């Protein structure tokens, strides 16, 4: 049996949801359907999740909410109309949203998560109503009743082990289960959402829980490409990719599949297939434990912005026992996680995601590093991107790092940091954000573009 997740673009309009229904009808093993909130219908459109975030912030600031509420409700109304559904489902959605907006907002994080999650929750209700209306035996299942238990981390919750046991009960369902993605509940019953794009995570948890034969992730592209198709024109399609490779790539920019969605299916050894709702007969990309046959040393190149570098230098740092630990502890106490720590004899750089910083946090960190660690120099630099070259074949291939560095130098860009992942499937370059796209293009030309002879 299969768990099939349909992303925001796949459920953005009535026509898209009709395609989803046809996909479900065409294969009886598609028993678990995980859905996102309605996404973008066209490039300049707004995702319902973003409309809901605007709505939550207006409510929190005691601003007028009716206009923002209508923007959300109109999306569902349009979909319901296009699917010939009765008004009742829109009334259910409106009542639900009004309840969420008028709820106690003293716990701001809970209030925002609760409104954000309504996007998938109400869409799942609507889609199961539509499935039933066309004769499919389907039921909406709430993550609360099903027991998708998560930790108490607002906006970035993680599933707890008991979630898998609870969800495994759904295996016995005689009907198609329509399950909203993106959120779960703490042991105390509080709703918490996953990271943005987290419906992929819900699908993966469900697939691992019910021991699915396949986890299908339906989106709006025929496959995962070896580079972002929004930057590189017509990139090579990836037929098969390993969990390790996909984790590295999706972590650093392949937004097509959330990196946290890999762990549950990886542990349960469930293959994943990324497919296109708009072209379901295309084979898609398979994510597997091991690839067979011959393949290129490089599988993909990703790029992601939003990184900062904390640079610290102190003469004889290499001789000082515990320097690195103390430095990282200062970050830990500011609730900051880090990505890489390239170092020299007398200096160290800590690469981290900029969204975790505030001006106040930066000031405190620099002060402590100078006063407590007696660093001679400590400062933050911002606006960096990470370019990650990934491939299982990299460790048997000498010269790849040199080829990549030479390609980057052809763009005239400076490399701020190089890190060869200890897993030996990745090589990361820290570069200034303004150079990100031209570097990605040049690396693509180096490793993937066909060489013309003659
Ligand atoms: N390497 C890549 N391969 C395929 N798609 C990619 C890649 N990198 C970025 N994307 C983007 O990811 C998009 C699909 O992800 P997303 O917008 O989250 O879809 P969904 O709404 O289905 O969840 C594609 O439209 C594409 O622009
Ligand atoms: N709707 C949520 C969760 C999600 O997974 O969406 P999508 O499938 O559109 O990436 C978001 O926008 O973050």
Automatic annotation (TrEMBL):
Q: Where, if anywhere, are coiled coils annotated?
A: 352-379
- The answer on whether this UniProt entry bears the keyword Amino-acid biosynthesis reads yes
Mention one GO biological process in which this protein takes part, according to its record: lysine biosynthetic process via diaminopimelate
SUPFAM superfamilies associated with the record = ACT-like (SSF55021), Carbamate kinase-like (SSF53633)
Gene3D superfamilies in alphabetical order: Acetylglutamate kinase-like, VC0802-like
Tell me which PROSITE patterns the record gives.
Answer: ACT (PS51671), ASPARTOKINASE (PS00324)
Q: Name one GO cellular component term.
A: cytosol
Q: Which residues form the ACT domain?
A: 389-454
| UniProt xrefs under Pfam families | AA_kinase, ACT_9
Record's catalysed reaction(s):
L-aspartate + ATP = 4-phospho-L-aspartate + ADP
Gene Ontology molecular function terms on file: aspartate kinase activity; ATP binding
**Record has Kinase as a keyword:** yes
Please name the InterPro entries in this protein's record. Answer: AceGlu_kinase-like_sf, ACT-like_dom_sf, ACT_Aspartokinase, ACT_dom, AKIII_YclM_N, Asp/Glu/Uridylate_kinase, Asp_kin_monofn, Asp_kinase
Residue sites binding ATP per the record: 5-8, 219-220, 230
Sorted alphabetically, the keyword list is:
Amino-acid biosynthesis, ATP-binding, Coiled coil, Diaminopimelate biosynthesis, Kinase, Lysine biosynthesis, Nucleotide-binding, Transferase
Q: What class of enzyme is it?
A: transferase
- Which pathway features in its UniProt record? Amino-acid biosynthesis; L-lysine biosynthesis via DAP pathway; (S)-tetrahydrodipicolinate from L-aspartate: step 1/4; Amino-acid biosynthesis; L-methionine biosynthesis via de novo pathway; L-homoserine from L-aspartate: step 1/3; Amino-acid biosynthesis; L-threonine biosynthesis; L-threonine from L-aspartate: step 1/5
Q: Where does substrate bind?
A: 49, 120
Q: What is its EC number?
A: 2.7.2.4
NCBIfam families hit by this protein: asp_kinases, PRK09034.1
- Family listed: Belongs to the aspartokinase family.
The UniProt function text for this chain reads:
Catalyzes the phosphorylation of the beta-carboxyl group of aspartic acid with ATP to yield 4-phospho-L-aspartate, which is involved in the branched biosynthetic pathway leading to the biosynthesis of amino acids threonine, isoleucine and methionine.
Q: What is this protein called?
A: Aspartokinase
Q: Which species is the source of this protein?
A: Psychrobacillus glaciei
């Amino acid at each position: 049996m299969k768990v099939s997740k349909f992303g925001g673009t796949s459920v953005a309009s009535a026509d898209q949801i009709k395609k989803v229904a046809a996909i479900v009808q065409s294969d009886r093993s598609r028993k678990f359907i995980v859905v996102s909130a309605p996404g973008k219908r066209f490039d300049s459109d707004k995702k319902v999740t973003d409309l809901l975030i605007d709505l939550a912030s207006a409510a929190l600031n005691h601003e007028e909410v009716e206009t923002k509420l209508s923007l959300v409700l109109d999306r569902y109304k349009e979909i319901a109309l296009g699917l010939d559904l009765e008004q009742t489902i829109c009334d259910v959605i409106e009542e639900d949203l009004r309840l969420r907006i008028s709820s106690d907002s003293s716990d701001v994080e809970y209030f925002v998560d609760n409104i954000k999650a309504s996007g998938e929750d109400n869409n799942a209700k609507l889609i199961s109503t539509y499935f039933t209306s066309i004769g499919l035996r389907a039921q909406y299942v709430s993550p609360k009743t099903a027991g998708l238990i998560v930790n108490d981390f607002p906006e970035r919750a993680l599933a707890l082990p008991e979630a898998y046991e609870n969800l495994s009960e759904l295996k016995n369902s005689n009907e198609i289960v329509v399950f909203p993605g993106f959120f779960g509940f703490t042991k105390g019953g509080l709703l918490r959402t996953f990271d943005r794009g987290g419906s992929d995570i819900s699908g993966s948890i469900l697939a691992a829980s019910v021991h699915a034969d396949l986890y299908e992730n339906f989106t709006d592209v025929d496959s995962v490409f070896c580079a972002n198709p929004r930057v590189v024109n017509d990139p090579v399609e990836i037929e098969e990719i390993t969990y390790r490779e996909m984790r590295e790539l999706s972590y650093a920019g392949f937004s097509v599949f959330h990196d946290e969605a890999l762990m549950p299916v990886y542990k349960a050894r469930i293959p994943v297939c990324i497919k296109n709702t708009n072209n379901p007969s295309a084979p898609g990309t398979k994510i597997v434990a091991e690839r067979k046959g011959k393949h290129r040393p490089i599988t993909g190149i990703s790029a992601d912005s939003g990184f900062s570098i904390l640079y610290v230098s102190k003469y004889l740092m290499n001789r000082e026992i515990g320097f690195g630990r103390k430095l990282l502890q200062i970050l830990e106490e500011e609730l900051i996680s880090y990505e890489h720590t390239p170092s020299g004899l007398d200096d160290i750089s800590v690469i981290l995601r900029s969204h975790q910083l505030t001006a106040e946090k930066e000031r405190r960190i620099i002060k402590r590093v100078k006063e407590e660690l007696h660093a001679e120099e400590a400062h933050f630099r911002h606006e960096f991107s990470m370019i990650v070259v990934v491939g299982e074949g990299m460790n048997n291939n000498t010269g790849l790092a040199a080829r990549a560095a030479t390609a980057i130098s052809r763009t005239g860009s400076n490399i701020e940091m190089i890190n060869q992942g200890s897993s030996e499937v990745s090589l990361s370059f820290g570069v200034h954000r303004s150079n990100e796209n031209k570097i990605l293009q040049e690396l693509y030309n180096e490793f993937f573009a066909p060489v013309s002879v003659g």
